């Protein structure tokens, strides 16, 4: 079954089940999720889940464009503050593997350089990265 999943947060993005959901909504196949992820998505108050319409399914079959560096950084700016302490290295940077799992972007596009650019912006804005002993 094809589902339409839409973020309802003020920021317009929300991360759950290893993916970024947007206010624009995303069409997905319900079989793409583990039972645990499906339950987490279904019970998440920041996500609206419903059956996808035929028009939404047709539009989702259009090949996705490759996100720009700015779009990747925007996704990282949304994902990093939602990460937990164990997702950060001893140096206070998000672990690359965990960061890549938190955003719905091709792993090759989520680079250490873009992570560092996002962290720089977050730190200037007052974000406090967890430091491990």
TrEMBL record:
Listed SUPFAM superfamilies: PriA/YqbF domain (SSF160059)
Protein name, UniProt field: Mu-like prophage FluMu N-terminal domain-containing protein
Source species of the chain: Loktanella gaetbuli
């Amino acid at each position: 079954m094809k589902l339409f999943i839409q973020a309802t947060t003020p920021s317009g993005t929300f991360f759950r089940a290893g993916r970024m959901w947007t206010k624009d909504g995303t069409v997905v196949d319900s079989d793409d999720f583990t039972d645990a992820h499906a339950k987490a998505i279904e019970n998440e108050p920041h996500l609206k889940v419903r059956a996808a319409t035929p028009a939404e399914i047709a539009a989702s079959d259009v090949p996705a464009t490759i996100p720009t560096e700015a779009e990747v950084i925007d996704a990282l700016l949304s994902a990093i503050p939602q990460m937990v302490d164990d997702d950060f290295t001893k140096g206070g940077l998000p672990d690359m593997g965990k960061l890549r799992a938190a955003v719905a972007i091709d792993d090759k596009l989520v680079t250490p350089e873009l992570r560092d650019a996002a962290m720089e912006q977050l730190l200037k804005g007052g974000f406090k990265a967890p430091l491990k002993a």
